[in-house]
Design brief:
Strand order of the largest sheet: 1-2-3-4-5-6
Number of domains: 2
Helix content: 40-55%
Structural class: alpha/beta
CATH class of the largest domain: Alpha Beta
Radius of gyration: 19 Å
Shape: globular
CATH topology of the largest domain: Metallo-beta-lactamase, Chain A
Amino acid sequence: MDRRNLTCIDLDQPDHEGFRRFISSWLYRDKRLGFLVDPGPLSTIPHLLAELDKAGVERLDLILLTHIHIDHAGGTGALLDRYPEAKVVCHPDGIPHMIDPAQLWQGSLKVLGDLARTFGEIIPVAAGRIGCAELLAGTGLRMHRTPGHAPHHVCYQMEDLLFGGEVAGVRAEVPQGIYMRPATPPRFVLEVAVDSLERMLALEPRSLIIAHHGLVEPASDYLRIARGQLQLWVRGVIETASKDTADSEQELFDWLLGQDRHFRNFEQLPADIQARERYFFGNTCRGLQDYADRLSSWQKQGMLRKTA
């Protein structure tokens, strides 16, 4: 795979603090195939189209969705208006929600509120233009189901490159070290998410594209960090839950700064990106807490022993 055929298109949201180098769409073009991974929300489609025009993209064969959350897939239907030959590929469970996004839109409003409204409505995709792995035949692409961040999450593999969506959470550049944060909205199940990461590790990809954000190498380092973070953060939720404090989210945040050497690099982030990460930290916490609340007391004790 020639990496010169691969382009990252940042879908920045200037009206939202810290929404830069965060939402990304990835374009691949060679002489036989052109595809786009995660076109983003409706609000960024004009910018995406301008960038595709600038790159001279007259045809797309496929639009690949790692999952159907609004910030990754909301603008797909609008993009199809420009590229009538393109077909959309996603997890089979996502297909009916892309054809009729009413329930998906209501879920987005419930989780994101005004941010969802800023992203814009979710545009339906015609039934004849969307499918699953069968649309990848002959392309050299493989789909891997990776529930964890969402039950309808998938990764796409092309040779030694993995388009990972949010399988490994969120990454941001810092001057020293690595900043990463799990992305675990409700309903999160630790064992399912860890299994997805372990199966991606078994593929031995050289490179990993993290939707939020960037192409990283070696992929195995980041997949292992993500796996370790999930286990550590669940331990943190259980440990800090035993403390009688008014602000459990802040308690966990402080605990993680002391325990997670990668999350600790939060302090190196620019102020606006810190603000963004604090906002999404709450969503991550809710998923982790929901999981911990479903554990029995002996399961919690076993989790603490396993991750100590």
